[in-house]
C-alpha cells in the first residue's frame, strides 16, 4: 500500500483503552496523518469543537457517554455534523453495526483493528472530507451563502458563511419557524423571504427543493432617507419602508392606521415612480441603493 503524504489529513482518535490508543496512534502517525487523541466522549466533543479534524476514529464502547452517543451529539451541531466518523468496535453483531450507522457513522472497523484496513478506509473518507471542505470554502470565498435542508427542514449542509448567519436563528437545527411556513407556501419558489436579525436583513431564496441561498443586507434606510433617494411622498416612503421589511398590506395598514386598500393605492404609485412591478423588485431596489 502506498504511504500517504504528510498532508494526508488530521484524525481524532478516541479510545479509552490506552494500549490500543498508542498502537493505532503510532501507526497513523507513521502513515502520515496528524493525529490527536481523546480518551472519552466528552473530551472528544470538546476537541472537535475546538479544532475540527478531517475524520474521527471512535471507539463504540467507552465509559461515561459511549461512542454512539458521542457521535449523535456531534451530528446535532451544524458545525460538526459533516465530519465523518469511523467506529471501532469489538461487537460484530448486526445490531451494533446498525446502531453505529444510525448514530451518524459512515464506516466501521472491528477490534482488534487491522491497520491496513483502517488506513484504506481513512484514505477514502479523508479525501471526501477534504474535497467537501474545499468546495464549501470555494463557495464561501465567492460570497455565496448556501444552505441545504431535508424534508423536515433540518439543516443538513451549509457553507461557512451561511453557518455564521443562520446559526443564531436555528431551532434544534431546524430552519426558523417563519421560514418553514414560507417554504410550505405556494410562492416560495418565486418570492424571496426576509428575516430580520440584530438590525440586519437576511433574504432567503429557494434555488431548488432542499436548497436555499441567503443574502444579508445592512439595516434599512428610514423613510426620510427614502424620500431623498426617490421621488416619493412621505406616506409612500413609509409604505415602501414596511414593504421592504416584508410586511403585508394588512400589516402596513395596521401600523400606519390606514386601510389595506389605501396601502395598495400608495404602493401602486411607488411602483410607478420606481419603475418596478412587484414588491420584491421595489425592496431589492431599496437594498441595492443602500449598498451603493
From TrEMBL:
<dbReference type="GO" id="GO:0032993">
    <property type="term" value="C:protein-DNA complex"/>
</dbReference>
<dbReference type="InterPro" id="IPR011006">
    <property type="entry name" value="CheY-like_superfamily"/>
</dbReference>
<dbReference type="InterPro" id="IPR036388">
    <property type="entry name" value="WH-like_DNA-bd_sf"/>
</dbReference>
<keyword id="KW-0238">DNA-binding</keyword>
<dbReference type="Pfam" id="PF00196">
    <property type="entry name" value="GerE"/>
</dbReference>
<dbReference type="GO" id="GO:0005829">
    <property type="term" value="C:cytosol"/>
</dbReference>
<keyword id="KW-0804">Transcription</keyword>
<keyword id="KW-0805">Transcription regulation</keyword>
<protein>
    <submittedName>
        <fullName>DNA-binding response regulator</fullName>
    </submittedName>
</protein>
<feature type="domain" description="Response regulatory">
    <location>
        <begin position="10"/>
        <end position="126"/>
    </location>
</feature>
<feature type="domain" description="HTH luxR-type">
    <location>
        <begin position="225"/>
        <end position="290"/>
    </location>
</feature>
<dbReference type="GO" id="GO:0000976">
    <property type="term" value="F:transcription cis-regulatory region binding"/>
</dbReference>
<dbReference type="GO" id="GO:0006355">
    <property type="term" value="P:regulation of DNA-templated transcription"/>
</dbReference>
<dbReference type="InterPro" id="IPR016032">
    <property type="entry name" value="Sig_transdc_resp-reg_C-effctor"/>
</dbReference>
<keyword id="KW-0597">Phosphoprotein</keyword>
<dbReference type="InterPro" id="IPR039420">
    <property type="entry name" value="WalR-like"/>
</dbReference>
<dbReference type="GO" id="GO:0000156">
    <property type="term" value="F:phosphorelay response regulator activity"/>
</dbReference>
<dbReference type="InterPro" id="IPR000792">
    <property type="entry name" value="Tscrpt_reg_LuxR_C"/>
</dbReference>
<keyword id="KW-0902">Two-component regulatory system</keyword>
<dbReference type="InterPro" id="IPR001789">
    <property type="entry name" value="Sig_transdc_resp-reg_receiver"/>
</dbReference>
<dbReference type="Pfam" id="PF00072">
    <property type="entry name" value="Response_reg"/>
</dbReference>
<feature type="modified residue" description="4-aspartylphosphate">
    <location>
        <position position="59"/>
    </location>
</feature>
Amino acid at each position: 500500500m502506498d504511504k500517504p503524504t504528510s498532508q494526508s489529513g488530521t484524525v481524532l482518535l478516541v479510545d479509552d483503552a490506552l494500549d490500543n490508543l498508542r498502537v493505532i496512534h503510532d501507526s497513523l502517525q507513521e502513515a502520515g496523518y496528524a493525529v490527536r487523541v481523546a480518551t472519552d466522549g466528552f473530551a472528544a466533543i470538546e476537541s472537535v469543537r475546538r479544532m475540527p479534524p478531517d475524520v474521527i476514529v471512535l471507539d463504540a464502547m467507552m465509559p461515561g457517554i459511549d461512542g454512539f452517543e458521542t457521535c449523535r451529539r456531534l451530528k446535532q451541531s451544524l458545525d460538526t455534523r459533516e465530519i465523518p466518523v469511523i467506529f471501532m468496535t469489538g461487537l460484530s453483531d448486526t445490531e451494533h453495526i446498525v446502531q453505529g450507522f444510525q448514530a451518524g457513522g459512515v464506516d466501521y472497523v472491528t477490534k482488534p483493528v487491522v491497520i491496513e484496513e483502517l488506513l484504506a478506509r481513512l484514505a477514502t473518507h479523508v479525501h471526501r472530507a477534504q474535497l467537501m471542505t474545499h468546495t464549501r470554502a470555494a463557495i464561501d470565498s465567492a460570497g455565496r451563502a448556501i444552505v441545504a435542508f431535508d424534508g423536515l427542514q433540518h439543516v443538513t449542509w451549509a457553507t461557512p458563511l451561511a453557518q455564521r448567519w443562520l446559526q443564531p436563528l436555528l431551532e434544534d437545527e431546524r430552519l426558523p419557524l417563519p421560514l418553514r411556513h414560507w417554504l410550505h407556501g405556494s410562492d416560495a419558489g418565486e418570492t424571496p423571504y426576509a428575516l430580520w436579525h440584530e438590525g440586519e436583513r437576511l433574504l432567503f431564496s429557494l434555488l431548488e427543493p432542499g436548497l436555499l441561498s441567503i443574502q444579508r443586507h445592512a439595516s434599512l434606510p428610514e423613510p426620510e432617507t427614502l424620500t431623498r433617494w426617490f421621488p416619493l411622498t412621505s406616506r409612500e416612503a413609509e409604505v415602501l419602508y414596511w414593504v421592504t421589511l416584508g410586511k403585508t398590506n394588512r400589516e402596513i395598514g395596521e401600523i400606519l392606521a390606514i386601510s389595506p386598500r389605501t396601502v395598495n393605492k400608495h404602493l401602486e404609485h411607488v411602483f410607478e415612480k420606481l419603475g418596478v412591478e412587484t414588491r420584491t423588485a421595489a425592496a431589492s431596489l431599496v437594498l441595492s441603493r443602500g449598498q451603493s
